[in-house]
Amino acid sequence: MKKKLILLCVCLMASWFIAACSKKPPDLKQPGIFSGYGSNCQLNLYQGRAYAAQGRFELAKEHLLLALAQSGDTETRRVVANELKAVEMSILTLR
Nearest to residue 88, comparing CAs of 63, 69, 49, 60? Predict the structure, then answer.
């Protein structure tokens, strides 16, 4: 009975791992809710989010800083600043 339970747990964990690894990477150039803003700001925001999702927080911070510098709207600045704050907190947590 114990062997069956362990085998079941291993199979579940393996299926979760396979499902997580098979996700398609996001299309960074696909327009989202910021379709009306400048393309450089939008692209840097999407790249920053993608790098943060991958755990590459230093690259995410660089792209989010670029997006913040290129943003022309207060709503965009607010969203990018919140993303940047979250990435900085993740960097501090890992140190």
Answer: 60
The predicted-structure confidence for 20-60, as pLDDT tens digits, reads as follows: 666 555 554 455 555 554 568 888 998 999 999 999 999 99
The backbone torsions φ and ψ at residue 16, rounded to the nearest 5 degrees and listed phi first, read -65, -40
Structurally, how many domains does the chain consist of? Answer: 1
6 belongs to a structural domain: no
Domain that holds residue 89: 28-94
In angstroms, the CA 3 to CA 83 distance is 45
Distance in angstroms (rounded) separating the CA atoms of residues 59 and 22 = 23
With contact defined as beta carbons under 8 Å apart, do 71 and 41 qualify? yes
For 58, the token pair is 């230093």
